[in-house]
Amino acid sequence: MSRRTLAVGLSMAAALTATAVPASADQLSVNFPSGRFPLGAREAPTKTQTSVTQGIDLYDVKAGSATDGYTVSVLMPSGRDYGMRSTAEAKVAEVEAAGETATLQEFVRPAVADAPVQVVYMVRVGTWSLKEKDKAAETVKKLKDAGIKSKVDYLGDDGLKTSGPWDAKVVMIDARTFRGSYAATLGTSVAKRETVSAMAKDRNAVVAVNGGFFNIHTAKNLRGEPVGLSVVGGKLLSDAVPGRSAVVLKGRTAHITEITSTVTAISQDGGKLVVNGVNRAAATDELVLYTEEYGAKTPADGGSDVVLDAKGKITAVRAPGAAIAAGTRVLHGSGTAADWLSEHAQEGGTVQVDTKLKDLRTHKSIKLTPDLSIIAGSVGLVRNGHVTITAKRDGQDSVNMILRRHPRTLLGTTKNGSLILATIDGRQPGVTIGANFTEAAQFMRWLGATQAINLDGGGSSAMVVNNKLVNRPSDGVERGVGDALVVLPK
Residue 106's beta-bridge partner residues? Predict the structure, then answer.
């Protein structure tokens, strides 16, 4: 996939206070809420509004104040900072035997739509103000000398009662007046990670945010691979995690739902075999489809490659470990899947690749048309106007993911079809603390979303407006990610 470098011809208008915007016929039908901030003390936030282009406004939102400090969390034998009561009580005794005073703290991870409440326990030593982090670090060293593993913990990250602060960026795109379109992009290839800024510049986007999770547990040169469904320009580039939340983009419409994907190889002699994955590393006995957008070689695993042209004709049967040429696809088989290819896919024959996507909310199939894009989310947050957190279904039902606060990238749609994109920066003690899943859902409901999902977050959270990174990623620099949602001027 070639990179296009296009100059962005739009410039960001000067900021003006949101309260100064007069009502008019051109006023957005999706409006920033006038009520108090939904988190913390629920005070009125400070906000500035920037007109980006027709139908798009950017809001810089700040709320709360820094009152949380630091503590030391003792690690359990599992390596986690929490455990069952008996394990935690044993750690309390161990810490006190080392001459430090320990506190046993109960944490209640709230119930979500698909997982019950969970009660866990942490062992904490001391509390210090925001300016006394070094003192907490000294205690960690003392415990280490006594053979006890621990870490400095910022109390604002816990997910319990807090005063903040919060620093959020919100883009509201009015379905009535916006004249552009939405799309997904994976940059130059599936395998390569790129920054949202680079992908936005490449697509001449007026707004862009990071997309879903990418695979950090595969080979280093393949870590741009989305974990979940990815469709770009009507082409399936990554298969779905069954039932995971996703956003379907088509023209200037955005639809949040859950989707399954099924890919089947059908040989000329009628043989059929399920394709286990698309554009990812192959496991033993798997059949994996690679497209020209993959950007890496097929696995050199002793299996077999069958090269297909656009119509499914087999143009070559080759040893694996080669690149995918433009205009071709490759079915790669290992183990028993390689045996199936040997039996059913000979050069000069055909293998059709049948791809089916199903919307689990409407129970209808989704056609792969050139204007279709799909990005997998990480967790469902709001459904039909109600907080509905599907953490277990989306593989995120741990204490760390549900309860603790992290930077967030959020996407929501309103009743009239408008789109809301938001980042809440975090992991910056005294500046901004992020949000847990419940807080993220409350925030999106406050903004007017009737459907909302959590995209990838943490150090991946990034929002780019008119080629400018407007949030502050927690890594200190913008991270390369797998995919992005881009808002295009046409």
Answer: 121
Q: What is the DSSP letter of 416?
A: T
Banded pLDDT at 395 (limits 50, 70, 90): confident
Quick check: 379 pLDDT over 60? yes
| Separation between Cα atoms, residue 206 and residue 204, nearest integer Å | 7
Q: Mind listing the pLDDT tens digit for each residue in 78-102? A: 999 999 999 999 999 999 999 999 9
- pTM for the full predicted model: 0.92
DSSP 8-state assignment for residue 30: S
Q: Which residues of 204-229 are buried (b: 16+ CB within 10 A; e: fewer)?
A: bbbbbbbbbbbbeeeeeebbbbbbbb
Q: From CA 189, how far away is CA 196, in angstroms rounded?
A: 14
Scored b (16 or more CB within 10 A) or e, 109-125 reads beebeebeebebbbbbb
Classify residue 346 as exposed, middle or buried by CB count within 10 Å of its CB (0-12, 13-18, 19+).
middle
* Structural contact between residues 463 and 409, judged by C-beta atoms closer than 8 angstroms: yes
Whether the bond between 45 and the residue before it is cis, its omega within 30 degrees of 0, is: no
| Rg for the chain, CA atoms, rounded | 25
Angstrom distance (rounded) from CA 145 to CA 138: 11
Q: Name the amino acid, one letter, at 107.
A: F
Helices (H) then strands (E): counts for the chain = 6, 31
With a cut of 70, say whether residue 24 has pLDDT above it: no
Asked if 297 and 332 count as a contact pair (C-beta separation under 8 A), the reply is no
- Distance between CA atoms of 120 and 434, rounded to whole angstroms? 22
- In tens, the pLDDT along 451-486 reads 999 999 999 999 999 999 999 999 999 999 999 999
**131, two tokens:** 């300016």
- Domains, in order of start, for the chain: 16-64+165-251+371-488 (no CATH), 70-157 (3.30.70), 259-356 (2.60.120)
Is the CB of residue 375 less than 8 Å from the CB of residue 278?
no
Q: Determine whether 161 is exposed, middle or buried from the number of CB atoms within 10 Å of its CB (0-12, 13-18, 19+).
A: exposed
Q: Report the alpha-carbon distance of residue 145 to residue 229 in Å, rounded.
A: 47
CA distances from 279 to 222, 298, 324 (A): 9, 9, 11
